[in-house]
Every structure is written in structure tokens, then in C-alpha cells.
Amino acid sequence: MKAVLALALQALAVQAVRIVQSNDDGWAELYLRTFNDALRASGHDVIVSAPADNHCPPNSGPTGRNATRPDLNWVNSFPATSMRYGLDRFGPERWNAPADLAVSGPNYVTNLWLAVHFSGTVGAAVYAAHEAGVPAIAFSADSPAGGSQPWNLSPRPSHSLVYGELATQLVNKLVASGRPYLPDDVWLNVNFPAATGACSRASDFRWVLSRINIGLLSSPDVEWCGSERLPHEQRVFDTDGCYIPISIGDASDRSTINDVARQAIVLDKLRDILTCLP
């Protein structure tokens, strides 16, 4: 309840935007719905367009929506296709305007480094950024509960609420930074450590700017934290202390964007929430 109230108060200072949300685990999955509730509590107009999985009526065709919540849509296909339907069809039908932002997830397992290239969660975000030209963020989490869980689980686990709150905080920060929210062909890859123990509350976590691949042969990164090489996202994730890696991705190939100018734009937008690794 406190998290929802905090997000609602934060919404007073954040411009509401049009968001298409997808994932890899299905439109009726817990993390997606918890994040969706947090985004809506912040005032954003959100369209869900996610894979159907096995949570839709039998013999119901290639697409469908919740009868009482037409903002909740499913697509009998892959995550990237679901995102495409949201951006090309479901969103414009509701808004008569394009989406401002696309988000994917949170996935119930992490998508770090090599896993990025095989992730449906990432694929949905990359489609939005590269094919549709819509700024996009992929969220994943080290779920303490194991597998994905249904949307109507009650009470909602505290870790699910923490992930939704954190993801919404980042969305709100990016929106508050002004348009364009991200440079062309850039997406963000975000992975939450398990929300347990000393990392049980959203306020326990710290954001760290990072890169997807190690970058041994890459050109220098934007200068930050006294270095011209951003830390590898796996290193950030594995560091004790509730650190969340935010990697600056190239939507053309799912690697780190090796362009200091575009990295610098993201750094400037997020600078005041970022911290350095110890």
C-alpha cells in the first residue's frame, strides 16, 4: 500500500505517457500485472500486449483482450510479435496516437550477458527500439520464488511489488528527463537482484550504469566513476549490496552501444540516480 501511495504521489511530478507493455511469460503473469498496476498508479496510460501463454479462452483466435479491461491484450505468438501488435494496432486503436515508450517484463529470471541474445523479453524491447523507433526498456529479475506465477496470486509476494516499484521508478526518471527519452536505436537492459534479505525494499537498491558485453576490444566508453570502461552487467549483478545494472544496449545487435555520444546522453538522463560500484 505504501509503495502504491508513493508512486501515486510521484505521479504528480511526472508527465503521463503512453506505454506499450509486453513480456516473455504471458499476459496473465504476476510480474507483468504488478508492474502494470504500478505504472498506472503513476498516471501512465498503459496497453498490455503480451503472449497468450495458456491463460486465454479456448478457440479464441490469434488475438484477444480482457472483456472488462480492454487495455489488457494477448497475442498467440512470440514476444516480439506481441510488441508489434501493441505498437501497430492495440495502442493506436486506444490512443489514436503512437506509443511514447515500450517496456518488457519483468521476466522472472535474469537476462544478463550471453542470455541477452536468446531472450524473448529482450526481443520485445529490441523490436520496439530498432524496428518501431520507440524507446524501450527490458526488465528481468532474479526471482526468489522460482517460476512464473499467476496474476491473481493473493496476497501478492513482496518481491513482486518491489520489482514493480523499481521498474516504475526508472520509467518515471526517464520520462522526467524529457524527450527524446533515449537516443535512436538504444534500449536499456535492467536486471534486478533477488528482493530478499538485505535487499527486501525498493529503497535498498542502487542503480549502476553498465554494459552488456565485457568490451575487451571495444572503443572506450563514456567516462564515469573514474573510468572509460563501464562495468560489465554480470559483475554489477554479482556485487554484494543490492546493485541493479542498467546496460546501454544497441538495438541493431543486442550488444552494448559503442558510441560515447549516445552513452553520454543516457548517463546525463540518469546521472542523479546512479551510483558507482565500491
UniProtKB/TrEMBL annotation:
GO terms for molecular function: metal ion binding; nucleotidase activity. Residues 50-72 are annotated as: Disordered. Gene3D superfamilies: Survival protein SurE-like phosphatase/nucleotidase. This is Survival protein SurE-like phosphatase/nucleotidase domain-containing protein. Belongs to the SurE nucleotidase family. It holds the Pfam family SurE. The keyword Glycoprotein does not apply. InterPro entries: SurE (IPR030048), SurE-like_Pase/nucleotidase (IPR002828), SurE-like_sf (IPR036523). Residues 1-16 form the signal peptide. Residues 19-196 form the Survival protein SurE-like phosphatase/nucleotidase domain. Keywords: Hydrolase, Metal-binding, Signal.
